[in-house]
Each structure stands twice: as C-alpha cells, then as structure tokens.
Amino acid sequence: MKTKKADLVLRSNQLFDLLVKWRRDFHRYPELSFKEKRTSETVIGILENLEVFQIEKNVGGYGVIATVTQGEGPVVGIRADMDALPIFETTESPWSSRVPGVMHACGHDAHTAILLGVAHLLAEDVKAGRFQGTIMLIFQPAEESCDEWGETGALKMLRSGKLDKLDVALALHMCPWRKTGEIQWHNGPSMANNDEFHLQIKGSGGHAGYPQNVKDPVWMATYVLQSLYSLNGRKVDPLDVGTISVGQIHAGEANNIIPDIVEVQGTIRSYKDEVRETLLKEIHQTAEIITALGGEYSLKVNRGEPSLINDPYVNNVIREASYGMTQYEAPFGMGSEDFSYFTRKVPGAMFFLGCGLDKETGLHQSDFNIDEKSLPHGVRVLLNSAYLLLERGGGFQ
C-alpha cells in the first residue's frame, strides 16, 4: 500500500496559526548550542500529544528523534536544527528574544516549527490509515557551534547509532533573499567546507626605537598576510570555489613596544574536497616564511563540517514536491551547514525556502526576521518530498 496523499497544500495552510504560535514561542526563548533544554522539552511535549511516534530523547545532546513505521520500505529522515546564536536582537517585535544576548537569527525557530507541522500532518495520515513506510523526524541540537572535541550536533546524532537505518535525508533552510512562494535548490556541492586556523608568530620584542635589536613578529606577519591573500587567486583554479579570510589579528599592548607574539586567526572555505586539501597544505607552507625570517610559529587548524553535497535525485523529488512555487537553481553561498554530515552518510538534499520581507536582512544579523506566511510552504514541501521518496522505494538502487 502506498501513502494516500490528501491535499497537503490545503492542510499545511490550515496549520498556519499553530506554526506561527510555535515559531514565536521558540523565538522568545532561544537557546545556544548544546543548551536547547526548553526547546527540546517543548518539542517532546507536542510530539507526545500526537500519540503516534516512538520518541527518543537526549540524542547527541538535547536531540530528539520521532519515528513512525507502517510496513516495509525505506527510511526517510527529515531534519531541523533547534539552536540559536549569541546575538542581541534588535527587531523590537512583540515576540523578540527574552534572553539577553541570544537570538534566533538564522531561522532555526522556523525550522523547528515547520518540522512540528510535518509531525502534525503525518500523525493525521497515520491515524487515518493513509501512511505506508518509515519517517524519522530529527530535531537536532548544536548546528551553529561545536563542542571542545570539534563536534556539532549532527555529528553527535549520527555517531549515536540512532540514525543508522536512514536511507535518505531531507532538510530546509530559511532564505531571506527569496520571497515567500520561492525555493532555491542546487545539485552537488552547495555550501562550503569550513575550516579555521590559528597562527601564532613568535619573535623577540623590545623597544620600538631599537628595531635592529629585535625579531619583529609584526614585520613577519606582513609577509604572511600577503602570502595568505595571494593563495585565493594563485593556488585555486578560477573555476573552483575556495577562499581564505583573516578575521582576527592580535599583537602588542603599547605603541612604543614591539611585541613578542602576533596571532592571526581566520577561516578557510571551499566547495570541493581537493580544493580544501590544497588550501590547508598551502597555509602550512606559508607559515614556513616565518622561519625564513628568523621567527618561530605554531599553527593549529580545526577542520569543521564538510561541504554540503546535494543529491540530484533527491533534489528532483523536492522540485516535484514544490509544484506551483517559483524555483531558482543556484548554490547557497560560502556559509557552512552541518547537515552536510548527513549528506556524506546517505543521499540527501537541503533546499532554501523563501521567507524574505520587504526589508531584506541577512542571516546572523541582529534584525533578522521572516515572513511567517512561508511556514506552511516548508511543511508541505518536506512532507510531500518524504511521501514521494517512500512511494518510489527510495529510488537509489
């Protein structure tokens, strides 16, 4: 028996008030990565009231997995992230953050509400005998930050073993540069590998009036910075995507003292794994300049999440499921997204859901906001995609 799809557009639209209620509640009470206790408890309470899910709690932190199985077939996972950012909100909306210095500035409150909407409609279909297959709803903690071991919530949930039966994974992300009723999709690498580096340049400081008596790490740093910036245009094929950016430089405490140490920190972004490895290799070689100039150095590189690779077959299903919406094909930019760990494990895809207002704001900005009319679109596209995948047996054999 295949799932019998009642009108998902109509039913999703009928959830609008609930979706807004949930989203605003999560927005008022944002929680940082690995601290999503209230959010998780709220999600669990709503899922338990639906009375159809097997619920697993505290997976990879405060993660929640809600599973429903009716008969044989592939296992489709739908993932939403729940954490917020360390940002002071400036929207002044009635549902603004009530937690000083913490804000949902990336739309994870909407992601969580949308997945609860999926759960609501899925539960209706299960109770009405319209559902056939297995769907896992994955409420993930800690997308924005990693722990002391460099692991984000996606990696922790996958390593828990609770998701080993997944055959395919779906996700969405709010997109403020697209309007409600629009989606953006892209095949293959669509968001960046994300690595960070911390370079410490060590010299021997002293009086600024006697530079001949010191080994000036600031002077050494000027050569290092020139080399780092030249890597963007000279070591990466212009047809590929890759960049190195310096975000922090720290040195000295007085204008008449040459310091002993200069610290340079930055990020390395790329789409292809081979470009990632090239840039990492070149950073290590660039650091050798310091030795040639008479200094010493230490270099630490933290490898973050890999690039997001969207499966073309899954994307075709998403495009079919979003009938009637305006579709754009383009990569999502040089940001990173730990859903990439899912798409490295199983075929999967993330699409960007238009939610832009007349005043466009970027992700991670203090005045970020969304058009809440976009929420039902997210519900119906995700659930319709999952149903299509189930009907087609996954489609990967």
Automatic annotation (TrEMBL):
Q: Which UniProt keywords apply?
A: Hydrolase, Manganese, Metal-binding
Q: Where does Mn(2+) 2 bind?
A: 106, 108, 144, 364
The superkingdom of the source organism is Bacteria
Q: How is the cofactor bound?
A: The Mn(2+) ion enhances activity.
Q: Does the keyword Cytoplasm apply?
A: no
- Cofactors: Mn(2+)
Q: Which Pfam families match?
A: M20_dimer (PF07687), Peptidase_M20 (PF01546)
Checking PANTHER family in the record gives: METALLOPEPTIDASE, PUTATIVE (AFU_ORTHOLOGUE AFUA_6G09600)-RELATED (PTHR11014:SF63), PEPTIDASE M20 FAMILY MEMBER (PTHR11014)
The protein depicted here goes by the name Hydrolase YxeP
Q: Which gene carries the instructions for this protein?
A: yxeP_2
